[in-house]
Amino acid sequence: MDTLGLERVIFGAEELEEPKRFFTDWGLQRVSSTRSRLAFSTRNGTQLEVCRDGARGLAPRLGPDGHFREFVLALKSQRDLDRVGNEMARDRTVAQLPDGRLRFQDDAGITLSVAVSTRRPADPPTAQAFNQPGHRGRVDTIASVHRQAVPWQIGHIVFFVPDVNAAEAFYRKRLGFWLSDRYVGGAGVFLRWARRSEHHNLFLLKSPHGRSALHHLAFEVQSPHEVFGGGLAFSGKGWATQVGPGRHPISSAYFWYFRNPLGGAVEYYCDPDFVTEDWKPHHYRVNRFSEWHLTGGIPPPPVDPNRPSLAAARSIEASRARSGS
After folding, report:
1. Which value, to the nearest 10 degrees, does the dihedral of the CA atoms of residues 207, 208, 214, 220 take?
2. Host H or E run for residue 247
3. Which run of H or E residues covers position 218?
4. Interval 90-109: pLDDT, tens
5. Strands 197-198 and 274-275, sheet pairing
6. pLDDT tens digits for 120-149?
7. Alpha carbon of 283 to those of 129, 179, 187, 190, 275: distances in Å?
8. What distance in Å separates the CA atoms of residue 203 and residue 160, rounded to the nearest whole number?
9. What Rg value do the Cα atoms of the chain yield, rounded?
10. Phi, psi (deg, nearest 5) at residue 165
11. Is the pLDDT at 31 greater than 90, yes or no?
């Protein structure tokens, strides 16, 4: 059984104004806003929900350091849902919620649910063309410049867990996840929820403090242009970089992480490896977090009167548009 992906990620919050501004600035579409609940959507319909602490039906906090509550995995059919429910009920409590999803905890104490997906397939964005030696895919066209990232999907979620091997066994043996790569000695494991998928959808890291916690939530965007342009725009709105931009050698993705006021981090990423059942997992012995990265974002360019800035160029373009020249 292959899981279709993340359907929803749920946080709690003492107040909703800061999360509303944060995830709106991040580029998500706000689909619902009440005094007790916010709901946002990516372009493919994956949702992020923020509920006021104490809201009815809200799962308990994972730990004292953040406000993550629950993630929801999408399944293809009711038959799949029943199968997972019966499997989990063998050794843990399974609660059926009013919307039909089944909620339980994994062996690391993380709350998750499974639900039959109600999302309609979305048309993916038009592929961006790149020019390479011997292959000119973009002709008579200027490459894109992004003033705002608009994430396509929540592509993966990452947790600290006390026992990586035990957590891996749960997801592989009980939920059918596939192994992509690992750090040896129980330091970390990259898993995917389908035999054919992005390199990883779930990454489990050895906890430095002995308890489970959200590490980060990753949002896939279209291209390096959108990682860098979206990151610059988000940083320009006052949100703090955690690390990046940079490039991962494991998964090959470009990244930029920002601190999440609800705990952990959020990541823009693009160009991940796509693997199949023919992929051969690697067993890494050294930290391979990045091929390269900046630690605090991209610094603003210095003022050079001999080199007009992008802002100046845009001002000139706007002036010409107004004058009709």
Report:
1. -90
2. strand 241-247
3. strand 213-220
4. 999 999 999 999 999 999 99
5. antiparallel
6. 888 888 888 999 999 999 999 999 889 999
7. 34, 11, 11, 10, 16
8. 9
9. 21
10. -65, -40
11. yes
**Type of residue numbered 77:** S
Cα gap 144→215, rounded to integer Å: 31
Q: How confident is the prediction for the chain on average, in pLDDT?
A: 94
Residue 325 has pLDDT above 70, yes or no: no
Residue 182 three-state SS: strand
CB 137 within 8 A of CB 89: no
DSSP-assigned letter for residue 27? T
**Per-residue pLDDT tens digits for 275-314:** 999 999 999 999 999 999 999 999 987 777 777 677 776 7
Q: Which residue in this structure is represented by tokens 């997972």? A: 84
The whole-angstrom distance between residue 68's C-alpha and the CA centroid of its chain comes to 14
Report the sign of the C-alpha dihedral through residues 107, 109, 114, 120, in that order.
Answer: negative
From the CB of residue 17, how many other CB atoms can be counted at a distance below 10 Å? 9
Find where tokens 């992008």 sit.
310
Closest CA to 16 of 58, 64, 65, 49: 49
Beta strands in 14-133 (DSSP E): 29-33, 37-41, 47-52, 68-75, 95-96, 102-105, 111-116, 131-132
List the beta bridge partners of residue 257: 243, 267
Give the integer Cα–Cα distance in Å for 298 and 294. Answer: 7
